[in-house]
Specification:
Blueprint lengths: L13 E3 L6 E3 L3 E4 L4 H6 L11 E4 L4 E2 L3 E3 L8 E3 L1 E7 L8 H6 L1 E8 L2 E2 H10 L4 H4 L5 E2 L4 E2 L10 E6 L2 E7 L7 H8 L10 E3 L7 E3 L4 E6 L3 E7 L1
Bound molecules: manganese (II) ion.
The site of manganese (II) ion (MN) has 8 residues, from loops.
């Protein structure tokens, strides 16, 4: 490779796929905020049908299941947000909900790690969320469970525990915007491409993580994810 590039290019970021030794190559990570009304309320907002906030994380923020994650540098408040992650393997451009459903390769459990201190400051000052959301190691994600055909409306318990105590508990049915609605809306802003992942928002119960905490997250019928804060 060094005859083409001035140094070795970074490795392809990938996630394991349940039931096969093949890997899912990751392209980009899109996230939406405010998709469960009980979480919108706990953050002091109004749950409306306006499309949620869109932000991104770099693909290399992904951490595999059972990772040890470093507590972020100069951080005063690291929060957990358990979320359904959608993995797509077909392009979507200004797509409708039907086409969006057909583009789903599979689903996974992710935690949108958030620096709540910096997010609160960014919100107050109308600044971008990058430092609060797109930091190193901010996207632990489970193996992807492939789905031949995804049902248009999902249900299943979504839960997160810290050191064995349940902090977040909800159901996918509580999502304000369904998976096909989220994908269709996102495809009005971005041409979604194979390898893209989408974090779809968190239920209520977000809270702080401390060094040494053990986090365990799950979505019924989809998978589970564990990690440790160093
Ligand atoms: Mn989130």
């Amino acid at each position: 490779m060094t005859d083409v590039y001035s140094f070795s290019p970074p490795p392809v970021i990938s996630l394991p796929i349940v039931g096969t030794s093949k890997l899912f190559p990751v392209r980009r990570i899109f996230c939406i905020g405010r998709n469960y009304s009980d979480h919108v309320r706990e953050m002091g907002g109004d749950a409306t049908k306006d499309f949620p906030i869109i932000f991104t994380k770099p693909a290399d923020a992904i951490m595999a299941d059972k990772s040890t994650i470093k507590y972020p540098l100069s951080c005063k408040s690291l929060h957990h947000e358990v979320e359904l992650v959608v993995a797509i393997d077909k392009p979507l451009r200004q797509a409708d909900e039907e086409a969006s459903l057909l583009a789903v390769f599979g689903l996974a459990v992710g935690v949108d790690l958030t620096r709540r201190d910096l997010q609160a400051e960014a919100k107050k000052n109308g600044l971008p969320w990058d430092c609060a959301k797109a930091f190193d190691q901010s996207a632990p994600i489970s193996a992807i469970k492939p789905f031949g055909v995804l049902p248009a409306s999902l249900q299943g318990e979504i839960e997160l525990s810290v050191n064995g105590k349940v902090r977040q508990s909800g159901d996918l049915q509580q999502m304000i915007w369904s998976v096909p609605q989220v994908l269709a809306q996102l495809s009005n802003y971005f041409e979604l491409l194979p390898g893209d992942l989408i974090f779809t928002g968190t239920p209520a119960g977000v809270g702080a993580l401390l060094a040494g905490d053990h986090v365990s997250a799950s979505i019924a019928g989809i998978g589970d994810l564990q990690f440790q804060i160093a």
